């Protein structure tokens, strides 16, 4: 089931961080997701751009093998977002949002697209997410994300959607807001009661947790002393996670789900090291695996038996 | 080197959290540290209490085998602290601090105490920490902690002390304040330049990181949906960490240092599940190891090879 359909936004982002500024660069939830997932699975992108969408950005996605048959070019301008980040590279402050052609986005899937086995509904209107899902022909795995805007404006539609979703990605603030829970753990508990068998709560620099059935798994972020631009980290995480999971062929296996968390963390860590999508456009698979193994090592707790065998240090 | 000397505070704490209230209960940095470390190593406590210190609290420490030869009972009242926590169980708001007999605390170590191989200088005046350290006879391992108060009032003395310390524990806010760094990673970089070969930065519910040489290791917290009282979590972490490390007999070994992080995390997770020291006064070593292994499992990333061998899930 090594093939994923993603529906979401493709945008031009203007971003200011403590490391500098990036103007009308490639962005959007579906873009970050597609690039990250493309290292593991084949990706079919469903989105809309305007007549002004730079040809080079199409090239960036095509070079990663992303199928752009579903990337519609509509009359008008491409969705634009601008925001800024504080010194701590935490949550963005939105400066402007111009939906433009995205305002009337209403995707109709092709026969080929309907049959893709894995679908990721990136953070768009939950009613639109449900419409897309309804067009899918018995998908094996359905995942979605959302954002504060939809939690405030359409909580009922979102809750209804979650009943049909296998994997739900949320950041911790959104999860607490949506559920009214006091912390991420309690939020995950409530969310898994609403339907998703896997709930992933992303905490930025503090890592992420995953609830599968009644058990919670915990993961630190990859340690980075300098973050240039956190835009798209969450979607990149979801792309690495779902791209790997789809490629594993065993999306119920807890071992593969844990590896998916580590691949999500790995891809997100690359993404925040440069502006826009620059650092995830052209990675070597070896570089991804090297950081994946480095992360695994930095967070592993060795068994006592293994230490007795391979101790290198001086005993005092 | 299975023996630790700890110098710090023994206090009576009054605490209010969203789970309730605890009045004049056993507290203090040296108390939490001693109880946690006692599950792994023998502990010699050096501190002062007043004439009003309840006999039952001595009993609590004695039942854990903590050597109280260095617990002086002085004329006057025991150190008292009161504070409250918000719904998120984050940083405490101090309501009152009455140093009482602690104000004139000036420990003189006995011949036996001077020879203890591992020393933990809990968060007291850095000049006092240095005085205690100067009395030690060639300790094999020196660790210390501090707090905002000393970072503000005696930063130079603290920095001087760090040059003589092997392991420095700090929470992330304190580390950033002390170094002026923008994040915990950068703070750890600066701090390790000041002397300690191991820098541990504690982030509460977000886990902890450890810098050893040029490499940073990252650890999530044990996932708990309900925290009754976070008081003493940091000192309990240090006790679990150092207690285990001292017992390992190989404090330079990265494998044992990683296991020490996981034991620190484990002990701290027990501590916050009840008020005061209630939940770390009488643990079974088996219960500690069970949670240690549970934590290791929740945060482990399996190797692909291992999954091919033991896959249990249904492939789609």
Give a verbal description of the structure:
The structure is a homodimer of 316-residue chains. By secondary structure, chain A is an alpha/beta fold. In chain A, the strands form two sheets. A nine-stranded mixed β-sheet of chain A has the order 5-4-1-8-9-10-11-12-13, sandwiched between helices. The first copy, chain A, has a four-stranded mixed β-sheet with strand order 3-2-6-7. The longest helix of chain A is centred in the last third of the chain and has 18 residues. The first copy, chain A, is globular. The termini of chain A are far apart. The C terminus of chain A is likely disordered.
List its salient traits.
homodimer, alpha/beta, nine-stranded mixed sheet, four-stranded mixed sheet, 38% helix, disordered C terminus
Write the layout of secondary structure elements.
The structure is a homodimer of 316-residue chains.
Chain A: E1 3-7, E2 11-17, E3 20-27, H1 29-37, E4 42-49, H2 55-63, E5 67-73, E6 80-84, E7 93-98, H3 111-114, E8 118-121, H4 126-135, E9 141-144, H5 148-153, H6 155-162, E10 167-171, H7 172-179, H8 184-193, E11 198-202, E12 208-212, E13 215-219, H9 233-248, H10 254-271, H11 285-298, H12 304-310
Parallel strand pairs in A: 1-4, 1-8, 2-6, 4-5, 8-9, 9-10, 10-11
Antiparallel strand pairs in A: 2-3, 6-7, 11-12, 12-13
Helix pairs in contact in A: 1-9, 7-8, 9-10, 10-11
Rounded to the nearest angstrom, the radius of gyration of chain A is 19 Å
Oligomer: homodimer
Distance between the termini of chain A: 54 Å
Low-confidence stretches of chain A: 310-316
Instruction: State which percent range the strand residues of chain A make up.
Output: 15-25%
Helix-strand makeup class of chain A: alpha/beta
Greatest interface and its residue counts?
Answer: A-B, 59 and 58 residues
How many runs of DSSP E, i.e. beta strands of chain A? 13
Number of helical stretches of at least 4 residues of chain A: 12
Q: Biggest sheet of chain A, strands in spatial order?
A: 5-4-1-8-9-10-11-12-13
**Main sheet summary of chain A:** 9 strands, mixed
SSE topology string of chain A:
EEEHEHEEEHEHEHHEHHEEEHHHH
How much is the average pLDDT of chain A? 95
Taken from the alpha-carbon principal axes, the silhouette of chain A is globular
Residue share in helix of chain A: 25-40%
């Amino acid at each position: 089931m090594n093939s994923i359909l993603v529906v979401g936004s493709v945008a031009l982002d203007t971003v200011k961080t403590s490391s500098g500024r990036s103007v009308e660069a490639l962005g959007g939830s579906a873009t970050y997701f597609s690039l990250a997932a493309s290292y593991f699975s084949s990706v079919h992108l469903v989105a809309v751009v305007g007549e002004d969408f730079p040809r080079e950005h199409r090239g960036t996605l095509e070079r990663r093998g992303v199928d752009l048959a579903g990337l519609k070019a509509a009359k008008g301008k491409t969705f634009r977002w601008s925001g800024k980040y504080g010194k701590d590279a935490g949550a963005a402050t939105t400066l402007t949002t111009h939906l433009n052609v995205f305002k009337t986005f209403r995707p109709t899937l092709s026969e080929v697209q309907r049959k893709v086995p894995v679908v990721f509904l990136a953070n768009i209107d939950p009613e639109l997410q449900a419409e897309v899902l309804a067009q899918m022909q018995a998908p094996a795995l359905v995942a979605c994300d959302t954002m504060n805007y939809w939690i405030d404006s359409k909580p009922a539609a979102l809750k209804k959607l979650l009943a049909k979703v296998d994997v739900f990605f949320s950041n911790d603030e959104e999860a607490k807001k949506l559920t009214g829970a006091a912390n991420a753990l309690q939020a995950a508990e409530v969310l898994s009661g609403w339907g998703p068998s896997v709930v992933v709560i992303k905490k930025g620099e503090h890592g992420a947790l995953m609830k599968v059935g009644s058990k919670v798994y915990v993961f630190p972020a990859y340690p980075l002393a300098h973050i240039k631009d956190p835009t798209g980290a969450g979607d990149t995480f979801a792309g690495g996670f779902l791209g790997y999971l789809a490629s594993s062929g065993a999306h119920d296996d807890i071992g593969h789900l844990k590896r998916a968390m580590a691949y999500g963390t790995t891809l997100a860590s690359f993404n925040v090291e440069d502006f826009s999508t620059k650092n995830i456009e052209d990675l070597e698979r070896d570089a991804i695996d090297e950081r994946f193994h480095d992360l695994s090592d930095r967070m592993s707790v060795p068994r006592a038996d293994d230490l007795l065998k391979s101790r290198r240090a001086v005993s005092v």
